[in-house]
Queue: 4 jobs
Job 1
Amino acid sequence: MAVSDRFLGQEDEAEGDFGISALFSDHHEVEKAAETVTSPVAEHADEFQRQEVLDDSTPISLLQATSLPTERFHSETDGYNLPQLYPGGESGSSSTKDQQKGFCGICAEKRQMSEMMRVSKTCPHSFCSNCISSHVSITIAGNQATVPCLELHCEHSVEFQSCVGILPRDVLDAWGSKLCEALIPIAHKFYCPFRDCSAMLVNDCENLVEECECPHCNRLFCVQCRVPWHSGVSCQEFQELNEDERDSEDIMLWKLAQNNKWARCPNCRFYVERTEGCPHMNCRCGYEFCYSCNLQWSDDHGGCSRS
């Protein structure tokens, strides 16, 4: 019994030691658990405090941003596509931005005010520079010196000075030339008859001029007839020719007929030559005429004095 009691006593002591060690072990685990639980709470508390500080400082940063120069503000916000800030810390509304744009009635689009322009100082209508440039180019290409306003029923015209900065150089030169031509009286100006030249010329000579050389293409032409020079044919004789008979080959044939004294049928304009007989001619077209006076033949025409 003593031995067993001793063993039992040892067991109780061991159990007591185990209980104490377990107690200390549990207390250590509780402390670790407490540290594990309280640590996130502290972190969240610090984060919450930092967020409050940031929230309090946000209006200040926006206010400072609005006071920065525009170039600096845009350079600092490149790539973020931020709305433009207006005084007061509010972003500009669409209605405010629309008020800063103009409306072009030709292309029916809203344009920046820098793209809009008036056609003249006296005309109240304004359009975008692209539409005005196209309108002027088309009008000048149609050989017109005056460019009307694009507004319907408007009597104003587009001014040359207002378009200097938007038109190509070749269009400006063509427009300037046409404006200069418009200042010359119609009675004093004419054009070179050669189609590959057509240069404008001014007749400022008081004397009657017939033969003239174009200073641009250096070819001769008749000032009175407005055609290439008809050598050997007077202006009166040339005017008597039909429109389809005034080419160089037709003139050569006409001169040959004059030299050989050929007659011409008044009806079909065909040349005939009499070798012998009376002046009564029967043309192949059926028309009868007098070879001497070139008039229609009649029964009492036999005694023509021009025979």
Job 2
Amino acid sequence: MRKQNLQNLGDAIKQVFSDLGIEENILATQAELAFEQMMGKYIMGYVESFHIKDRELHIRIKSPELKSELSMGKSKIKDHINQELKQDYLTEIKFL
């Protein structure tokens, strides 16, 4: 009798991404998309740029007032993004 090696398709895809070394890039992209969706078009209009580096979200905001307001909610933003990714991916949010 043959031994079957059954694996969930989602788990198999994650394993392939991990083997190829692109899992980190995919998570970073998903985190950026979650940030955009959370902020919405209006707030994103005040965001000059944002990127993820070493699991930290770096955000450049045009408005000092908005920067201050968002800075007070850093942990809420981080928690929301990590919840969307279903893992503790982001470690920090920095405003530039």
Job 3
Amino acid sequence: MRPADQINFINKNRLAWSADVLMRFYLPIIGRDAVALYQYLTTSDSVRVSDVLNHLNIGIIDFNDCLDKLTAMNLLDVYTDRKSYQLELKSPKNPNDFLADEFYSRLLLSRVGEQAFEKIAEYVQPFETKLSKKFSDVFKINFSGTVESIAENKTDKNGFDLTSFQNIMRQRHLGFANKEVDVLRIYELADKYNFDWYDLFKIAEKTANANSTINIDAIILEITKPDEEKPDLSTFSPDERQLIMIAKEVEPEVFLNSLKSQEGGFVTKQEREILLRLTRLAVEPEVQNILIHYSLIQTAQSSLNEKFVDRVANDWKRNNVSSAELALKRIESFKENQTSNNSKTNNNYKQNNSFDSTKSSAKVPEWHNETTKNMTTDQDLLALEKLRQEALKDIQGVGD
């Protein structure tokens, strides 16, 4: 809005609010200016924005920021016909409803801290708790006319089912790195990108850290990354295509262990930390595998070198390398761009950069050197199908 704009109100006579609720529950989240603006608007009939600015002694940027906070907390809706603005003020949640809303209560907890939050919760705790449920909480009527009992399954105001999200996390042995912060950001992502709990979980599972914790930053990168055109597989040699297939199938630590064990080595603690850091930086597992292969086979290193890995990973992140195919093409580009006048740093980075198919064939994990048709037995296929069916049952059970 601009200072000269006119504000009118909708359904203002239906508003019911308590200054105490605003101060205790909303102020820590939206701030004093937003609370003051809400209170001022409840006493106004029709007003210019400039009058509001003068009365509250705030600028137009702060005014619009306060409006955004009020709308985000469902205290206000803004409409416009391009000539004027219509505001629909909404009543704050009552204390019990506020604390019962998992998103709002966690948001308040993150602002005031655990000790203050417990005092607020004690303040609103009723002497007697009503245990009765509404008919709609217990029964549902389907189109055949029968009444069925249902279990309570709460979702937030935007329809995101955190309970189901957490249940499937436990089933897949995933956890939060920082639950209080991560839950709020999960809600934020679900709201911003319109995800249901299962679609968001699939991304969270795909981008999880090596220590099986949710990686919020990696989720954001996965959601917002542009759709790139992957190189045609026909442009790769048979050995390169085999490496791409392996890179997409195998977890980085398993791939690393397989390569090192062929030479009598083992994965060190430092190498596990390198892989964990790459995961936290949202480097795709298949890209990590190509980087591992490039480090150990193409440059003939006995172990992952932290500085070398960081240098290559940084280059690939800058150049949006997000798949095994693109990683191999990036390696090939090192060869094409190499000149005799490269700096020492670039020479170190680009040494041995051509893709050696003989090395590739010899150094993929030994258990993957058999032909594809012989890789999986009938017994293995039955076991995999059993696991798939069990996974489907788990998912259906969580969503019920």
Job 4
Amino acid sequence: MVQVRKLVLAIAAASALSSGMAHALGLGELTLKSTLNQPLVAEIELLDVKDLTAAEVVPSLASPEDFAKAGVDRQAFLNDLTFTPVLNASGKSVLRVTSSKPLSEPMVKFLVQVMWPNGRLLRDYSVLLDPSKFSPQTADAAAQPAPAQTITAPTTGATHSTHTTTPRDTLWEIAAKARTGGSVQQTMLAIQALNPDAFIGGNINRLKTGQVLRLPDQVQSTALPQSKAIAEVAAQNEAWRQGRRYVAKPGTGQQQLDATNRGRANTGAAQNAKDNLSLVSAESAKARGKGPAGDAKALSNKLAVTQESLDTTRRDNEELKSRMADLQSQLDKLQRLIELKNNQLAKMQAEGSGAAPATAATAPVVPAITAELAATPPATPAEAAPATPAPEAAAPAPVEPVVEPVVETTPAADDEKTFNELLTNPILLGLVGGGAVVLLLLLLLLARRRKAQQEAEKHLRMARALEEQSFSQDLDLPESSFEGLEVPAASVKLNPAPAPAPAPAAAA
């Protein structure tokens, strides 16, 4: 019976877990139904809705903490987004995302939070609003060529602000930071017009690295209308995605900013030089793009690509040269160390070879003198008298000062060298180390044996103490244990001791 009850409980728990897992709500792909400069309309597919109701599904924009953890920038216009769950609409449950205001940003990234009774779900979405999906009215307005005109910007005497590009920079980020009055698209095209050589193939998505960009002011940023700027950015993005070179088409409203050095024609214009903004129509731009001018532009673009590749190669060569220089310096240091070591070894060998002949030369001094003295015959007393000539008597004079054997003492340098050799001898060091290890092991064994002996003595003392205690307890019997015992009378009679005899009287 108990086993049946356990089985029922296990089945109930499994069913509860399976039902909880069945209600694990999921978010699918996002379908965009609006374009740029329109209120956002998008649908996110809801997965595994099962029997959930619209009241149980609570979608919303994630909190700033969740945005920070996900590394997504929570922009201000995201607060206008509204999330509405639509369950089982046409057999498909979706999460409708809408906004009350038009979105002018081509890239929208947000974090969705969906809560239901069994859990919570977070997912981020990136929406690219394609500017090419314009209404016909906007496209027609953008297709009309603008009349050629020249806008003269006021001169304030201040220089243009600049920005040096890095490998991680994009023109969108630079324009977003440098915008002074126009939109990001207007600022991007103004930067491109001021710095045409900083882009490969004339495309805003192919920004060169290490270029110093001149940033436009407010007048230059707003010179091109917003709709035309968006159309131009969309056209360049499409050309970049297809991997082809971008060529300006009629009706795109592409304009150019005159960022060249002015005043080269005459000195009067040079004295009153100002920053001019020149608006050129599409037809004139197309006409300029044909013939030698177009070929020159194509050649300049190819030259720019070649220069960029050369710059990359040059940087790689410089990096390789720096690494080679580091390796060469390390090799030089090693070579110097080897030379010093060789010099030390040569010096030690020279000292050793010089000490050996010196000792060999000083050794036969005493035997030579002894042999010379032995070679001279001893003079008899009879012959000594007539031997008066001075030369013969003075013959042994050079041998008269007995030279003591010179023993060269070993200098302290030899002792120090020997000591150093002993210290640097790996075999000796190994023997010393092994001896130290063996000595340490012996000390450990002795300490362990002494400890074991102390433990044995301690146990022995404790055993003896226990034996003595048990014996004393056996002797210390209570008085009640002696009750009922009859003590027999003593069978031995003791006779009284005889009285001592009186002492004899003393003689009178």
